[in-house]
Structure formats: C-alpha cells, structure tokens
Design a protein that fits this description.
This protein is mainly beta. The protein contains no helices and seven strands. It has a domain at 24-88 and 95-100.
C-alpha cells in the first residue's frame, strides 16, 4: 500500500509541499485492519528508516508499538500514521512502515 504525503493534486491545498521540519503529524482513520485469521493477534508497526525521527501506526488509543492492541478473530481497528520530522532534512523520501500482526505474548 502506498500513501503520498501531501497527496497528488485536488486536495484542500493544491500548492502543498509536504510536511514541515521539526514537527509531528498524526493522520487518523486512513485504513481499517481486520483480523480474518483463526486466532488472536497483537498489532503493531516497526520502522527502520533513517530519514524521519519516527514513522508509526496509530489508532485513537495511541501509537501501536509499546502496548499493542490484541485483536480477537473478527475484530478490527481503524489506523493511521504518525510522522515525526524532527532531525530530518528537506527532501523527498520513500519510507517503509511494516505492519505486524503476530501471536500475543503470553
């Protein structure tokens, strides 16, 4: 899945140039993740890039990393992204965020 920030034309601000430096942005309710498996999973994200201070999956309950929610079979959660540009430089970046759903810790 690919997201272009600030997007491609036609938005509220067609002259937008992207996110600013030394800022934190949260974009909520961009997609819904549903557990369609056969057992509960914990949901979190990992970011290993170097261009941003942080890139993470977020829900209305916060960043999905340190205390990941557990989704029972059939459960869903609306998620978005946190982008932290502190210590970043001006430029165009292609970053990867990995979404993980694995067996909950016992």
């Amino acid at each position: 899945m690919v997201f272009d920030i600030p997007g491609v034309g036609g938005g509220e601000n067609s002259d937008a140039q992207g996110v600013g430096l030394d800022s934190i942005y949260e974009f909520h309710d961009l997609l819904m993740i549903v557990n369609q498996g056969t057992q509960p999973v914990q949901l979190y994200s990992t970011y290993g890039g170097t261009e941003l201070s942080d890139l993470a999956l977020v829900s209305d309950n916060g960043i999905l990393r340190n205390d990941p929610p557990i989704l029972d079979v059939g459960d869903s959660v609306d998620v978005g992204f946190l982008i932290d540009t502190h210590d970043s430089s001006v430029g165009e970046f292609e970053e990867t965020l990995t979404i993980v759903a694995d067996q909950p810790d016992e």
